Amino acid sequence: MKLPAELESFVVHFGEMGSRWGFNRTVGQMLAVIVFTEEPLNADQIAQMLSISRGNVSMGLKELQSWQLIRVHHRPGDRKDYFKPSGSIWELALQVLAERRKREVEPTLSLLRSQLMNDDPESDLFVSQKIKEIHDLLELFNTWFDDIHRMSPDNLITLLKLGSGVGRVLDIKDKISFKK
Amino acid sequence: MKLPAELESFVVHFGEMGSRWGFNRTVGQMLAVIVFTEEPLNADQIAQMLSISRGNVSMGLKELQSWQLIRVHHRPGDRKDYFKPSGSIWELALQVLAERRKREVEPTLSLLRSQLMNDDPESDLFVSQKIKEIHDLLELFNTWFDDIHRMSPDNLITLLKLGSGVGRVLDIKDKISFKK
DNA sequence: TTAAACTTTCAGAAATTTCTGAAAATTATA
DNA sequence: TATAATTTTCAGAAATTTCTGAAAGTTTAA
Known about the structure:
Two copies of one chain form a homodimer.
Chain A: H1 8-21, H2 25-36, E1 41-42, H3 43-50, H4 54-66, E2 70-73, E3 82-85, H5 89-118, H6 125-149, H7 153-162, H8 165-171, E4 176-178
Antiparallel strand pairs in A: 1-3, 2-3
Helix pairs in contact in A: 1-2, 2-4, 3-4, 5-6
The structure holds a DNA duplex.
């Protein structure tokens, strides 16, 4: 199976962005071909389309599965594993954010929580203050994201579109009353 | 200048997280010592505290400045450059997000916009559809973030604390009227 | 069972990123 | 202007990450 010429620029781009998004070039390229190809693809097809080794594809698929961005699909009478995106573009984006929070925020929060526990009276006041500030910021973000993540796509879209307009709603929150 | 023992765990941790946050281990460690030290630090002090070369510090400082996370500070009668965080913890966090959006979203959006321009009627319908979906998602996110980024910290905190509670406000938006 | 069809693993090779430190460039002071 | 203080650059070295492909492992079917 040959990589359609049309997809080349996306594959190259997803490759370049890969490491910025949290994985590596090849994994980024693999995600691109899987997302932009309508039918589920098997490992050999991916290896051929991207001209990379079979072993590399196996590792990349494992990585994409650990991010929960792809899932296996089986076709009757065919023993190969076929892969397709685990959801809509919207769901994939949320999943990337969720996974990044887990990998980028969670470990730091753990460290900060444990530092706040031991509340050493010997410790420098400036340092304790900074620890508290970072901790509170990350906790707040964490709770917010959890909350947001549970919303339906439709509500989430409405919310995003409103943007800081929400600020206006909040400003008047004390001025409103319910209609009967 | 010696690295206070108290800071060691943070420096190590910020180092480990560095590459996940978008820079490398040393740059992460440098950010840690600058954020957790009350007085501005010069390059030699940083090199000594982290046991790394002077050249490496110079490159790292350039990187942190390109992220706008630190700024130079001069002391009377001293020709050295001293560095301190460019703002509060809150501002640094927003700055990291803004910079990451620029590096992770902007290039992809450019590519997608140009693809939507050429609107080739030859192109595969499934592919065009995906391009449009990703494009719209990123545009929406981009606009939202711009909007949010301009809010005052206080309003932003209120908004985060409300979380999906905003959804409830939106649900009832047709049911409210203003108090006189 | 056995064998064929697949997938995963992982040691070493290749590619990429980061680091060092001496030399070059810049800047401030006398 | 000269020189001393400081920062930046960058070639090569070191460290780290990624990739290959053959061997080992797993699964299915007869």
